[in-house]
## 1
Amino acid sequence: LHDALATAAEAVARSVADAVLRLSPAPEEVIMSGGGVHHLPLIRSLTRHLHDLPLLTTDQLGVPSAAKEAIAFALLGNALLDRTPANLPTCTGAARPVISGSITPAP
């Protein structure tokens, strides 16, 4: 089990680093959030595969990494209230930008 989990963490680190290093323009840093910020072997592997790119956490920037999902849903809710499309068709495969969600009043 230990070897399988280590292999999975290594695969995730390589996959993320490969995607980041292919970005154009090249990023100046990588910002990490969520539970992975506590996974030290993952962070070490990601740092190694990112070569010289600084790897920061949102905690270091004043945003609790544990709040990632709550912040994302707050942003999506705000976009709905503003009637602003919150999807990127180039990322999601959607045919067009759409307003996501609905507001349903209590009965």
## 2
Amino acid sequence: MKNIKNKVKAIIFDMDGTIIKTEEIWINAIKQVLTTRNITTITESQKKMFDDSAGMGLTPGLQLLKDEFNLPESVYDLVHETKMSAIAQFNKGVSFITGFEDFHKKLREHFIPTSIATNAD
């Protein structure tokens, strides 16, 4: 760790999937949006399309969903609904990615500044 301190001025972590386990929360939120519209089954090609869209951000991902299922709502309404579903799940608690807390503690012990960045809406 001392060698890192000589080479690294600070570390910026991505939040979703790097610090906290959020993938399942967002998947469940999107499933809930689909379920409320009686869409309970998706094809393998649709699943692949959604898997490939991971990381692009919520609004573009939901635009794909809107287009694929011809949903009448605006993408902004879908974003709002998805966020409300996710917030309910976040309020139940989130878990850190295994090993993050120990790693972050070591960074703090060596006075290496950290920050969080996210592309989340």
## 3
Amino acid sequence: MQREQTWADEYTTLLDDCERRSERLSDWELGFVDSMQRQIAEGRRPTPKQIETLDTIWERATARG
């Protein structure tokens, strides 16, 4: 039986994508990703600004080229 998807799953996927491409990220971005992972692990939802920042980092990390 498949487990129910939670609000955190989408963010966890984005954060994992960023971690797999850590060589493309700045030190600040890596720190942000790490901080977000801890926050979500503690069950705290990200703010709209944090979500926007994560989207920007993810776009850069996963861009082709």
